[in-house]
Structure prediction request, 357 residues.
Amino acid sequence: MVLQRLEAERFRGLAPLAADFDPRYNLIVGRNASGKTSLLEALYFLGRGRSFRSRRLQALIRHGASDFQLVARVTGGSASGPATTLGIRAGRGETEIRIAGQPARSSTELAGHFPPHIIDPEVHKLLEDGPSQRRKFVDWGVFHVEHTFLVEWQRYHRALRQRNAALRAAGTGSPVAAWDEELTGSGTRLAALRSEYLARLAPFLAAAGRALLDLDVTVAHQTGWSADETLGEALGRSAERDRRFGLTHVGPHRADISVRVDGQLARDRISRGQQKLLASALTLAQLGLQESVAPGRTALLLDDPAAELDAERLERLVGLVRTLPVQLFVTSLRSDLPGLGAPGAMFHVEQGVLSRA
Prediction:
């Protein structure tokens, strides 16, 4: 997809804006705290229905306002294709999403029209933070290459909620075992989809790892239960513990991925400075796989790539990004960011005001 135009009102510290973008490379220049990252955040929200900076919706609303509004025009595959309008209005406790003028059932529908990926100065948290971050990373990828994933994910989490509720009500005749079959079936299928996705991701990750780090990068799926038993067997073994704590302790909701470089766990092998490149390799591998399945559908948001990277590492990152056939939105302190060539459109941001250079 190509994002042609964005209109934003009352979003963060941005002044009301209406901007038309280049289908290939957009460079956003400004000083620190000028509003560059807020612009990327608005773009990210359009595709993901959430922020990459804050879990609090209120933090995205301009001070003194009760809501914010984003409206975008996107086209399929090329800038000249038919356009679709995406609209979001979000306020305290309420988010309204419209696609082509019709109410959307959930924010996941946005990703079918504008699925953005981001590499920002906090990208290393993909490796440093807990398993939930990595599950979200994998699930976002599976969602875009396997059409049955969302149904299985929803079935599993519905069964998980019901089973946990039954566990908490234990002693009142609550039928915990009644949910085991549904949980086992959907959980086994969900784990299989994740494993199949990671197998497809492997060659893309290997190429990105070599390009960015000169290292052999691999990932292994930890399903959320022991590899030497089925999920049903694991639930049976954990039944007493589950009843004692009122919580299901095994299953895909406890899954993780282990990242290895040259055969060793990444946390034992690479420096803090290399973590950003490794997390970037994971992101770009995912983007590459997604493009191979559905060409021309993705966008990459690159927030201040020069931050915390020396000249050699920046050159490697930019060199790999340059090969990707995606729409780019790049922020920078400088208008002469090396390696990506001349931007198709350049914007300046100052005190929240966006202007075309």
